[in-house]
Amino acid sequence: MHEDTFYFAMLMFQLGVTLFCTNQLFLHQRHQRVYVPLALFFAAQSLVGIVSIGDLLWGVDGYEAMFARWGSLSVPFTLMQPFLFWLYVRALTSEEEVDRITHKGWHALPLLMSISMIILMFMLPQSVFETDELDWDTIDQLTRFTAVYFQVVSAIFYMQIGIYLFLTMRMLSAYSTRLKDLFATTENRELSWVWWITTTVSAYLLLSFVQMAADLSGIAVPDFMLDTYDLMDGFFDIAMTWVIAIWGVRQQPGLVREPVVGASEPALSEAVSSKYERSALTDEHAARIANKIEKAMSKDLLYRDPNLSLWDLAKHIGVTSNYVSQTLNMTLMCNFFDYVNKWRIKDAVKQLRDTEETILLITYDVGFNSRSSFYNAFKREMGTTPSAIRARPS
């Protein structure tokens, strides 16, 4: 009874969080292509939570069949959640409108299978729900088929989660690379919390596969381990919901493009293919742009702007951001993030040797937003710490 009360409290807490997040996300006026999938994700969690609470309260005393059948209506909402979260990350890491979804049938497969599961649940005889353990030798063909079919759907569901995890990690990797092409400071745009979720879910998925393999092979699992697993399952669901709620509701798209106005060179638009741009930008033109970039750093100290972006630099020197990006990568052999931070570290080293200013003051003066990002960039560029540089004789 104590365990049921504790589990009920966890479900109620999770339901409150998901309902609140659903409401907040649907109220977002901007970036709806990002927030609507996450709102639907929380809405699906809310519906599953309501069914779980109802089952805990009334799924006894002769109501087992009713709740097993009507509770199966929540299965599609459970199977939709990995797809909806993937849609959210897909929109969150895109620069423009995302492309149409390909292979729609594959994405819809678990949903379609769950509908057939609901039909089978309503076809099963009530006696099936009144026993704790089925006797495989005495059950009818329909019940036997349903039991096997449920195992198949579960296996496909877990496999699809694994595929979505892989696709999400690939998107996050490409997103991190793109951030360094566009921004000099990326820590406020990094999606570390999504990385944490994908890594944790991967470990949990592996544990689920082990348990499934043990069930299929007939290995007896002690009751206390099953109880512990159920408790871990509840804590895991709440932890995932809480992390997504804290970060997802307030997360802004990281690759939002600010309009560049006043550029003096009417060069190619942003939509032009990269192949055409490379052929249009000659070596001589790239060299002139490189000189403008160097001057913007050495003379105008543009790197000291903590929020500097590729678009800001392009506007400052009067060149389209496509040409600036190409010049950085093809002529200066560096992405925007590394290039700007090299100038910041160069300035910091000079100040460390020539002034008595504190390291923290120098950190912010040269353009870094945090002490940790400064130390990481400094160690990466210089191979030592700021304190060691200051301690060396000139």
Task: Give an overview of the whole structure.
- There is one protein chain.
- The chain is mainly α.
- The protein has 3 domains: 2-248, Rhopdopsin 7-helix transmembrane proteins, CATH 1.20.1070; 272-333, no CATH class; 342-394, Arc Repressor Mutant, subunit A.
- It is 70% helix and 0% strand.
- The protein is built from 16 helices and no strands.
- α6 packs antiparallel against α7 (192-217).
- It starts with a helix and ends with a helix.
- The model is unreliable at 260-279 (pLDDT under 50).
Q: What share of residues is helical?
A: over 70%
- Extended strand count: 0
- CATH C-level class of the largest domain is Mainly Alpha
Main sheet makeup: none
Give the ordered list of helices and strands.
HHHHHHHHHHHHHHHH
| Number of individual domains | 3
Which CATH architecture of the largest domain would you pick? Up-down Bundle
Give the SSE layout.
Blueprint: H1 2-26, H2 32-58, H3 64-71, H4 75-92, H5 104-123, H6 141-182, H7 192-217, H8 223-248, H9 274-280, H10 283-298, H11 310-317, H12 321-330, H13 336-354, H14 359-365, H15 371-382, H16 386-391
Helix pairs in contact: 1-2, 1-8, 2-3, 2-4, 4-5, 4-6, 5-6, 6-7, 10-12, 11-12
Protein name: HTH araC/xylS-type domain-containing protein
Pfam families: HTH_18
Domain HTH araC/xylS-type: 287-392
